[in-house]
């Protein structure tokens, strides 16, 4: 079989990606700077997820899947050294996301960069995030997605504005808005969490005026793992044989040739779609969220000031917490439904933080159905 051979694993066709020039170069570059692929990781294109990671090795619970030398990561230390020509970090107040974006973009613009093998291995276009769509398309989204889209676009615009204002000298391409957008989105979809103490102990310039904690970092190859809500891995920074490594351990084990997933967090499908540009058909963490006004409309009731105050005082109107999930109705939604449907009850605290009455619980499946039908019909 040639380099483009496909393999049938659990009836799934995967196409290896290790023969591609950008991946050969990436692997060479990683090994030149101290990465050894002892766990036989391979990159492949999977039908459901596109490019991801697999191994010809089986992992047991607790095994290390990958360990990347810290020197190969783009951390605050890397950017604070690499950006000195174009900005003075002690004079500006940028966030770590801004700095990683600026670093990626400036390195991509250079004819020769120490990071070009890494940058060439990245998707050359942004993933299809819904909030990057045209204003006409955004107008056709459901209201909740429009609100998130607006917030995300505003964050991107503010990052670009802060960054442009801070640059004292720059190659022209750094101000290219599409390129900045590419870098910003890639940082958002690929950065890993690193404890700021590790960044501090390895960086003498930590007095710089960073506007937030340097908890984001880019990690070549480790950023090739796709997400699954059931994946359980643990990341840690370890010191071995005179070198720091960022490593991932599996807490479940994986089979040979299966795609190896990590979890990007306990995200429902809206979060996955808006942050990463995909969703999972069987996502058990998925929820259907409601706003207080929507719940009132569906229930067809008006509330008096005492009911409204109770809901507000306990933050029960936060739409992040008003949802129906695989496990049923959330506590906050249950509390809101009880309060809005029982104006005559004197002491809401007693019921909501005690026991809901049986006759209310009996009708809960009906309320749930009504809420879900309404939501479905509103699309
Ligand atoms: C950290 S990267 C993972 C590697 C990426 N697939 C690649 O080829 O570079 C995150 C991006 O991968 C894709 N992704 C991750 N998990 C996925 C999944 N379960 N299904 C589909 N796409 C996924 C999304 O485009 C996401 O923005």
Automatic annotation (TrEMBL):
One Pfam assignment: SET
Domain (SET): residue spans on this chain: 39-265
Protein name, UniProt field: SET domain-containing protein
Alphabetized PANTHER family for the sequence: SET DOMAIN-CONTAINING PROTEIN 4 (PTHR13271:SF151), UNCHARACTERIZED PUTATIVE METHYLTRANSFERASE (PTHR13271)
